[in-house]
Amino acid sequence: MTAFDRRDVGLLLLRLGAGGVLAAHGAQKLLGWFGGHGIEGTGQFMESVGYAPGRASATAAGLAEAGGGTLLALGMATPAAGAAAAGAMAGAAAVHAPNGFFNQEGGYEYAATLGLAATGLAVTGPGRLSLDHALGHALDRGWMVPAALGATAAVTAVIVGARNRRLRKPEQEAAAGFASQESPSGE
């Protein structure tokens, strides 16, 4: 048996750190743990930022974060786990993007960092200190990486696109209403 190398230990630490944070965020959404608001409160928030229906959006985001994060930490089904977590973080980044990059201003820095870490793990793999390795990589095949990331990118684009259209609709209606209320000045 060969000794584990620095790469395996580094991937384990990255998986535990990013996966643990993602799992905790998902538990906030799903269960109200760690100061979270649970499905009801998170669902109301999701509605307020344009993700509708709110409860279904909160459930999907919570499952992607809690499930993806837990699986990343364990190093199991790494391509699917990383893709799910990355998709959830892309949705979160869309909410924070109007505030710029930095987290202290409410920007997308934090969501982007977690999403990129999850994507990097999906691409790189979990290392030898993982359940994927122990199970002979049955759920971590090379073809699964582009399939999982591609499917997640497509679904995320549809969901974020629908949110963006939903948010633009009141602005467009208000602009149309303002234009119809204007009268010619006759000058």
Automatic annotation (TrEMBL):
The keyword Lipoprotein does not apply. The keyword Ubl conjugation does not apply. It is found in: Cell membrane. InterPro entries: DoxX, DoxX-like_oxidoreductase. It is a multi-pass membrane protein. Belongs to the DoxX family. This is DoxX family protein.
